[in-house]
Amino acid sequence: MEFVYNAILVLHFIGLAALLGGFIVQMRSPDKGVNPAMWHGALTQLVTGVLLVGIASAGLVSGEEVDHAKIAVKLVIVLIITVLAFVGRRRTPPQTALWGTIGALTLAEVVIAVFWN
Q1: Which of 30, 38, 67, 37 is nearest to 52 (CA)?
Q2: 3-state SS of 75-113?
Q3: Which helix (H) or strand (E) is 11 found in, with range?
Q4: Residue 15 sits in which domain range?
Q5: What is the pLDDT of residues 17-57, one digit of tens each?
Q6: Cα 58 to Cα 73: distance, rounded to the nearest angstrom
Q7: How many domains does the chain have?
Q8: Scanning 56, 70, 83, 91, which has its CA 20 to 30 A from the CA of 33?
């Protein structure tokens, strides 16, 4: 089960790369908005994050403990990101405020994941 957990973790990182990459690639563009990479990255982050917590909570991977407060905060943030990406993908650019909010929340997710012990 450890292999499955690690494979899902890799997919989680790929989702993060797509979400953050979709944000960063538009920094110089005047028509900032939600692109498909951001939408798919948000969905990937949400699904793989839930799977990772489920596997760890079930005790199927040794050495992985779940901090439920941290996970709750991260879940709320990724749900907000996903809803914003869903709404933004239907609108035409420029969506600078929406784009900036998604980017800031994504960076907040990374900071929480790294620094919250």
Answers
A1: 67
A2: HHHHHHHHHHHHHHHCCCCCCHHHHHHHHHHHHHHHHHH
A3: helix 2-24
A4: 2-115
A5: 999 999 999 999 999 999 999 999 999 999 999 999 999 99
A6: 20
A7: 1
A8: 70
State how far the Cα of 32 lies from the Cα of 22, in Å rounded to an integer: 10
- Report residue 29 as tokens: 């563009």
Place of tokens 């779940």: 66
Q: Which residue has the tokens 């994050």?
A: 49
Helix (H, G, I), strand (E, B) or coil at 6: helix
Pair 9, 52: CB distance under 8 Å: yes
Place of tokens 């005047």: 30
Six-digit token string for 77:
């943030």
pTM for this prediction: 0.93
What is the residue type of 103?
Answer: G
Tokens of 99: 């784009």
